[in-house]
Write a structure and sequence with these properties.
By secondary structure, this protein is α/β, with parallel strands linked by helices. Helix content is about 65%, strand content about 10%.
Amino acid sequence: MDQELVVEHLFHTLITGDRLNARRITQELLNEEIAPEQISHEIYWPVLEMINSLFRADQLSTLAHHYGIRLLRSLCDQTQVKYSLQPSRGRKVLMFSGASEADELAGQLVSDLLEADGYEMYFGGGGIAKDEILAETGERNPDVLLMFASGPDDAPNIRQLIDQIRSVGACPHLQIVVGGGIFNRAEGLAEEIGADLWAKDPAELVGKLASDTQRRAPAEQRTVGRNRRVKAA
């Protein structure tokens, strides 16, 4: 697979609303026995980034942007059902994104990939007030609170949310993770607002969370073992 050529070809079919050829490109990749997850990581994500960056630079019309985002969402939905489901990792992820169609699509892509990688996913999309996110975090008690592909207006709210979660201390073992969106465009922002982990794209995020999950497993197993001994006593 010539990745650059496929990305360029799919990009042009998407922004012109060419639904038949967009689906044909995806089907040809699947016929070549390229893993659906690889298509999402190496084709869909770069295309989405290209659409967004050109639109922000006023080099893409609103119509072309809407064609691209909506058709790409359709392709992501069709590809997601072909993912290979991995064994459960025993970790729950509560996830939100920016409110725009593009940010929600990026969030959906990440959510689908993480779910296939063994995480219990809850994806609320964008436009959710921080008080509601805080309440849901307390109710769900997730292992990870993930904010991916957030827009520029979301950063102050995410900072306040993190500060509130830390000050309340209701979820002392909660890991706060951010990535994509404004965090890719503002270097150092993720660390500045107090995130525990950050990633620039879905592939990096899946890899970092997997490594972190493996690192935490021995300590969590020891804690479970101690709890069992206490109960037995």
